[in-house]
Amino acid sequence: MSATAASLVSYGSDSDSENESNLNTDVEKVDLADPDAMAHLKPLKSIPTMSVAVLNSAPEVAVKEAVETGTHLDPSLKEVTYNPTFETMFAPEFGPINPFKSQQMAAPRNMLSGYAEPAHLNDFMFEQQRRTFSTYGYALDPSVDTHQVSCSSYIGAVDEAEKNKGLTVFESGQKKSEKRKKIKGGEAGEIDNFLGPWAKYIDEKDGAKPSEEEQKELDEIIAKRQKKGKNEEDAPAEEKTILHVKDMYDYQGRSYLHVPQDVGINLRSADAPDKCYLPKKQIHVWSGHTKGVSAIRLFPSSGHLLLSSSMDCKIKVNNHNMVPLKKHHRSHSKAVRDICFNNTGTQFLSAAYDRYLKLWDTETGQCISRFTNRKVPYCVKFNPDEDKQSLFVAGMSDKKIVQWDIRTGEVVQEYDRHLGAVNTITFVDENRRFVSTSDDKSLRVWEWDIPVDFKYIAEPSMHSMPAVTLSPNGKWLACQSMDNQILIFGAQNRFRLNKKKVFKGHMVAGYACQVDFSPDMSYVVSGDADGKLNIWDWKTTKLYHRIKAHDKVCISALWHPHETSKVITCGWDGQIKLWD
C-alpha cells in the first residue's frame, strides 16, 4: 500500500521536478499517516436518493421600458437577407452627429447631386412620354400613380393636356376627315368613258379665274419680279477709254498694235528660245491699277502688249518693254474676272461680275458688242480656229458653258453637264476639243459644238482645279489643284493623269493662281497665296527658285514666249511686275 502511494505521488510530479529530485539529496516523502493525503483514493460514501424538481423553461421576466430589443440595421447596407419590420427599416440613426455637416451634406445621397433611387420603367413608356413632352409640351408626372390620372397628374403645359385629353403622340387624336370621293369613270374596257386616276373630285370646282384676293397676291408677285428684272437688266456701265500716249499713230501711220522690230529679239518668229534661264531680279513695275489684278494676257504670237484686268473695273493695255501705259478702258460696273484676245489681237473679250461679256476693239478701245444671260461669267475663250473666230464660249456660274456668235449676238449652244460653276475652258487637240474644270471637282472633255461630254474625269481624291494651262508643245495640261499641288494631265487622246509629274511646295488653297510653262518646256512657274513666284524644273519636278514677288496673293505668272528669262507676275496688291 505504501509502495502504491509512493508511485502515484511520483507520477503526479512533472519531469522537471524529477530532475530536481535527482539532483537534490533530500527527497520529500509523503506522510501516509495524514488522512487528507489519501482522501481521493477512498470509495465514495452512499448518498440517499433525491426527488426531481419541476423547472420552468420560460419564466416571466420583467422587461424595463428603456431597454431596446429591436435589431439595428447599418444605414449604408444595400441588401437585407431577412424581412425586417417597418420600424426597423425607418428607425432613426444612432451615434454621434458631425457638428460641421450642413443639412444638405448630412442628407443621404448615393451620387454627387443627391439620392437617386433605382426604378424600373418600361422603355416604350419612357419614350412615349418623352416624345409627347417634346411635341405637345406635357407629360405624365412620374411621381403620381398613373392609375388615378387627373389634371394634377401632368407636368408642363397642363392646359394643352386638358385640351387633348392627355393623348400621347402614339395615340390617335381626332378622326381624320374622310377622303374626297372621285367621280366614277367607268370600266377600263371603255376607252372613251374611262377616267381612271385622272377623274375629278365630286366637290371639285372648275375655276379658271382667281378670286380677288388671289389676284392681288399675283399682281404683287409679278410686280416684284418685274422690279427685280429691271435691276438685273439695268443698262451696262458707260464705257470710257483713255489714251496715255501723245499720238495714237507713228510717223508711218502705224498704231501701237504694230509689232516692234527694234527690241533686240525677233518677236515675229514662230520658234521658241533654245534655252531658258531662271529670272533673278525685278526690272519693272506697272502700278496703274488701284485694286487687285485678276488676270493678265500677252498679245498673240508676238507678246509685245500686255492686257490686264482688275477688280477696279478697268482693263489696261501695257507695253511689256517698260514703255509707259498705252491705254485703259473703264469697262464694267463691277470687277472684271477674265479677258481673252482673239487670234490676231485686234479684239478681246472681257467677263465681269456685272453679268456682262463685252467685245472690245484693241486699237480704238471701243466696245463693239455686249452679251449676257443674267448669270456671272467666270471664264471666256475665243475658238482658236481661224474659221471660227466669230464664236466664243464662256463658263458661267449656273454650271453651264454657253456658246455665243458675235455676228448675231445670240446663244448658239449650251453645254450643261457640270454640277458646279465652270472655272476654266482650255482648247486642245488642234482646237477640235476643249477641256473644262468646275467647282464640282471634275474635269470634262467636250467635242466642239456637241453638248455631251465624251470624257469625264473625277476621282474621290481630286480637288477643284480653278486654273488650267496648255503646254507650248500642246501635249500637257497643267492644273492648279486646291490641295497645294500642280497636276499634269495628258492633252491627247486619253487625258490620263501623269503621276510622275506633280509639282508641290507652294500654298495656293483657295486661290486660282495661274500656271505657265517656259517656252522650251524646261520650267513651270506659278504664283501662290503668299505672293511668291515659284519655279520648278519640268523634268525632275524639283522646286528650283522662289521669289517674293507681291505683298498679297500672286494670282498669275506668264513667261514671255520669245524671251529666255522674262516672267510677268500680277497680284492682288494692284501691281504687275516684270522679272529677268
Structural descriptors:
five-stranded antiparallel beta sheet; 31 strands; WD40_rpt; PRPF17; mRNA processing
Provide an overview of this structure:
With 580 residues, this protein is an alpha+beta fold. The protein has 7 helices and 31 strands. It is elongated. The chain starts with a helix and ends with a strand.
Ordered list of secondary-structure elements with their pairings:
Blueprint: H1 2-12, H2 15-23, H3 86-89, H4 103-106, H5 123-136, E1 138-140, E2 154-156, H6 158-163, H7 212-232, E3 240-243, E4 282-286, E5 293-298, E6 305-310, E7 314-319, E8 327-330, E9 336-341, E10 347-352, E11 357-361, E12 367-371, E13 377-382, E14 391-396, E15 401-405, E16 410-415, E17 422-428, E18 433-438, E19 443-447, E20 455-457, E21 467-470, E22 476-481, E23 485-490, E24 497-504, E25 515-517, E26 523-527, E27 532-537, E28 543-548, E29 554-559, E30 567-571, E31 576-579
Antiparallel strand pairs: 1-2, 3-8, 4-31, 5-6, 6-7, 7-8, 9-10, 10-11, 11-12, 13-14, 14-15, 15-16, 17-18, 18-19, 19-20, 21-22, 22-23, 23-24, 25-26, 26-27, 27-28, 29-30, 30-31
Write down how many β-strands occur, each being a DSSP E stretch of 2 or more residues: 31
Question: How is the largest sheet built, in terms of strand order?
Answer: 3-8-7-6-5
Multimer state: single chain
State the separation between the terminal residues, measured CA to CA: 147 Å
What percentage of the residues does DSSP assign to strands (E)? Answer: 25-35%
Largest sheet: 5 strands, antiparallel
Helix content: 10-25%
